[in-house]
Amino acid sequence: MTNSAFGRSNPSPARKRPAGRVLSALLAIAPLVMCLALPPAAAQAQEQPAASANAVGTAPDGSKTHGGQEASVDDLGKYTLPDGTPTYRIAPDGTMDWFTYSGYRRYHAECHVCHGPDGMGSTYAPALANSLKTLTYEQFMETVVNGKKTIGVGTADQVMPAFGENLNVMCYMDDLYVYLKARADGALDRTRPSKREDKTKAYGENENQCFGRK
Amino acid sequence: MRKLACAALLLGVAVYAWPAAANDGLTKIIKDPKQWGIQTGDYANTRYSKLDQINAGNVGKLQVAWSFSTGVLRGHEGGPLVIGDVMYVHTPFPNIVYALDLNNDGKILWKYEPKQDPNVIPVMCCDTVNRGLAYSDGMIYLHQADTTLVALDAKTGEKKWSVLNGDPKKGETNTATVLPVKDKVIVGISGGEFGVRCHVTAYDTKTGKQVWRGYSMGPDSDLLVDPEKTTALGKPVGKDSSLKTWEGDQWKIGGGCTWGWYSYDPETNLVYYGSGNPSTWNPKQRPGDNKWSMTVWARDADTGVAKWVYQMTPHDEWDYDGINEMILTDQQFNGAPRKLLTHFDRNGFGYTLDRVSGDLLVAEKYDPAVNWATKVDMDRNSPTFGRPLVVAKYSTEQNGEDVNSKGICPAALGTKDQQPAAFSPKTNLFYVPTNHVCMDYEPFRVSYTAGQPYVGATLSMYPAPNSHGGMGNFIAWDNTKGKIVWSLPEPFSVWSGALATAGDVVFYGTLEGYLKAVDAKTGKELYKFKTPSGIIGNVTTYEHGGKQYVAVLSGVGGWAGIGLAAGLTDPNAGLGAVGGYAALSSYTNLGGQLTVFAVPN
């Protein structure tokens, strides 16, 4: 099936950034439709205010976030910037947020066979630790859901599959994003995040709902 | 056709009468060292050539005779074929075939380029490699990425027939070569990371019609086993030997893929190959031994019925895919001549079996770093005879889901992946390209969607700790004793198939792009030349116009191209080591080139 058909359908005017709340949205009856209900990426990207700095910075509370912006946390353990984009957050004592750690794990199961360990790329897929320096949150979501084809140009054909129907990816979109953003911003080097927050109860419940598990 | 095969199984006899003269053509070519008719050189998969014009005395003078660009910049596995005055070169996706005129400086006689849906590209795990063509009776066989098996007229490139072996939309793809045996062509399939239930299929060489298909798991009728006559370590496998070792319907998405190499023994009429990892990589989601994944198979070439099976890694917990080649040799074992099968498994054990009976004779580590099992139980009276004795600390099953098991050797790449070894009857040694890489492995729960990756584990890999710091070795192995004779450290995994020759030289390629020649007895380096890109292809030799040539494809990629391109994490980097990552990208770049070498007159 073509993911673009339903991936771009029904943008919710009530929520400007529904994908920013993927896990919450998954509480809904039709989790996939909700989590794919993204506005067209290009249009959305243009509306977006410029990021304050495309690098890791120190937030007022002493933690490390994207651009050093203040991040609020929800009951899932997800940190969000004032503009609604999820972010990694490293506490002053070095503790990594759960989403970034989870993103590390999921990346190295679903993505690394093409994009290489630690987002470093391979001989046939780009280094996402670089791509996320310029790719917006919406562009990232759009690409993962719908895939991407670069055929007949450049050094070799590159095709990324559409993961829109793959729960192992769809249930962890924000996790993957904040992990790769942490890599792109230089907030996380090529190591497994060691000191981290625990998985929250709400996160675990959401995860089960997303997979349709009891 | 499966029904017919089952009838054969029940009766215990072949239902087909085969023309005895079928495929004399390939047998003759295999016997002629001037030509190279199938990827493995011969049916026994020895990758040994009787040519000796290039030898230990003059190999140092080797020079590039000519070269050819394939026009594709992806991982180039496999190697060219040489039939008479024509060389056949294949490429990764889109799987172009070139026929080159050796009498005319490699002029292109014909080119075949299939039209394939590019959506197959991301379904192929780990690059769009293809391990090459096979020749038989005037036809060139190409098994495309999208699982289309094509028979081309070797003279004109005209397509004679084609047949679809699988469905890429379900994650079924192909990277392997095929093996023509008599009037059939034996074909495998990939998709272990997509929950495919894999199989081996024989097609009629004349028509492309399916003759038999044997699955790696499922009911006996799908496996093509005879519960009473098919044996495992000498004992009948019994009824439902596979189904009993899976929980629920997991076997239906059970993996056991067949993307490796095939060998054939005309005397036993058996085809030998290995089946791959069970799906998913999370062992907790598939309790049981998961038979017959990770298994050495011996199937009757005519009926597909298995004569014997041996499961090397029951209930895999590390992705130690069992697909590596089975090398068939007739050697002295304990003072008596014996028909042997030698196999270097991903799991780090080098196995020697009796290929007639399937009896296990030797199982020893061919890299001292291997630690996930202490040994394979060789006590015939033990209830665990033939099974690896797993070390609890490295058991991802025992440590459980969401636990990171650290320091497991080898990594999922295996101590050796598909890159085939060679055997020289002059030295009685096996020459084995190996990986020297370890890993951390953390399994977790995943859900299955048809045509989507179904992995279920996170892993990170790094050079074997407390060793030479490199990620590979090229070793000489004594299969009767289970001992390493010599070992050459390499900075990167050796991902190129070896070639042994009667000139007492062994050739292999490296990921930096070197073609190397070493002394077959001592391992001493005699020659090296840096080709334009990393070598993951297999070295081939042939003779034309009275002169011996050595040929190899360059073009870095494959699984080696992931990770190694950017460098693997060095576990010592945190201890202050300089240059924590050995990045292959500092040494080589993408390429697609055939380089042909000769000693100048």
Q: How would you characterize the overall build of this protein?
A:
In chain A, 38% of the residues lie in helices and 8% in strands. With 214 residues, chain A is mainly alpha-helical. The two termini of chain A are 28 Å apart. The N terminus of chain A is likely disordered. With 601 residues, chain B is mainly beta. Chain B is 5% helix and 35% strand. Chain B has 5 helices and 40 strands. Chain B is globular. The termini of chain B are far apart. At the A-B interface, helix 5, strand 7 and helix 8 of A face strand 31 of B.
Total of DSSP H or I helical runs spanning 4+ residues of chain B: 5
Quick one: biggest sheet of chain A?
3 strands, antiparallel
What general outline of chain B do the C-alpha atoms trace? globular
- Distance between the ends of chain A: 28 Å
- Uncertain runs of chain A are 1-52
Going across the biggest sheet of chain B, name each strand in turn: 16-15-20-19-18-17
